[in-house]
Write a structure and sequence with these properties.
The complex is a heterodimer of chains A (96) and B (171). By secondary structure, chain A is of the alpha+beta class. Chain A has two helices and six strands, in the order αβββββαβ. In chain A, strands 1, 2, 3, 4, 5 and 6 form a six-stranded mixed sheet that branches. Chain B has one domain (11-169): Peptide Deformylase, CATH 3.90.45.10. Chain B contains three helices and eight strands, in the order αβββββββαβα. Chain B has helices at residues 28-42, 132-145, 162-169; strands at 49-51, 61-64, 78-87, 91-97, 104-111, 113-119, 125-131, 155-159. In chain B, strands 1-2-3-6-7 form a five-stranded antiparallel sheet. A three-stranded antiparallel sheet of chain B has the order 4-5-8. The chains are: A alpha+beta (96), B alpha+beta (171). The interface between A and B is medium-sized, with 14 and 27 residues.
């Protein structure tokens, strides 16, 4: 199949920076899907534990992208880290 | 050894590929075929996966390019006799192209998540739950084993522009 590896979308770069600063640098960016008709400008981040790491399901005004974090930290820790470090005006972090 | 990637019209792309007997996975012939597939895929700048029928071999094997993973050493790159166990209900139209259908692109409806069972190059059975690009690859490559090309399912099919082709070729 033809295709290319995806990179982190611009709106999620602050999320990656917070994670990297906290020592979580093994971040894999998933496929980018476009979102239509979303008026909310706040980025939604759902934190979920998956086998071997943490899945962040992120939805911005225009795109959806999953970030996989390969870390030993719990979902609770990542949730707390993101909630405390990201601006609440721009990001809405939810646990699951 | 680098093999030629066959193009639409080649009979191997329309044949139903045969399963590889598990006891033959570690044979010299199959190991050589896997290596040939990796070598051939590596020559394609825009290739993310390659199925055996694409080099004219009617066997149910596909390989995935290591560069799509951040940690390829942790991932399975070879899928032998893969079987899709389940697919998510949600699906969307995804931009798609094929190394055997140069230079066409279109959109194909693919499920967002897929669970696959296969054997690796050591003959070990494993399961992978994938989403994103990997789930997309699984569906595209397993179609090759049934003689299905993305052209059969695509909408908005078009030829790539010269500019797009030049970009892929790195000119």
């Amino acid at each position: 199949m033809r295709g290319k590896k995806t990179t982190i979308i611009e709106a999620l770069v602050p999320v990656a920076k917070v994670l990297t600063k906290a020592g979580i640098d093994e971040i894999s960016a998933g496929y980018i899907r476009s979102v239509k008709g979303r008026k909310d400008v706040v980025v939604d981040i759902k934190v979920r534990e998956i086998s071997g790491g943490i899945l962040l399901s992120c939805t911005t005004k225009r795109y959806h992208q999953d970030l996989r974090l390969y870390t030993n930290r719990s979902g609770e820790e990542v949730f707390t880290l993101l909630s405390q470090s990201l601006s609440q005006e721009r990001f809405r972090v939810r646990g699951r | 050894m680098i093999k030629e990637i066959v193009q639409d019209g080649h009979p191997a792309l329309r044949a139903k590929a045969k399963e590889v007997p598990v006891e033959e996975i570690q044979s010299e012939a199959i190991q050589e075929l896997i290596q040939d597939m990796h070598d051939s895929l590596a020559t394609q700048r825009d290739g993310v996966a390659l199925a055996a029928p694409q080099i004219g071999v009617e066997k149910r094997i596909f390989v995935v390019a290591p560069f799509i993973f951040k940690h390829p050493e942790r991932e399975k790159l070879v899928y032998i006799n893969p079987r899709i166990l389940s697919k998510s209900r949600d699906a969307s139209w995804k931009h798609e192209g094929c190394l055997s259908c140069r230079w066409k692109v279109g959109e194909v409806k693919r499920n967002e998540e897929v669970e696959i069972e296969a054997y690796d190059e050591n003959g070990e059975k494993f399961r992978v739950h994938a989403d994103g690009l990997l789930a997309h690859i699984f569906q595209h490559e397993t179609d090759h084993f049934e003689g299905i090309l993305f052209l059969d399912k695509a909408r908005n099919l078009r030829d790539m522009t010269e500019e797009e082709i030049r970009e892929i070729q790195g000119e």
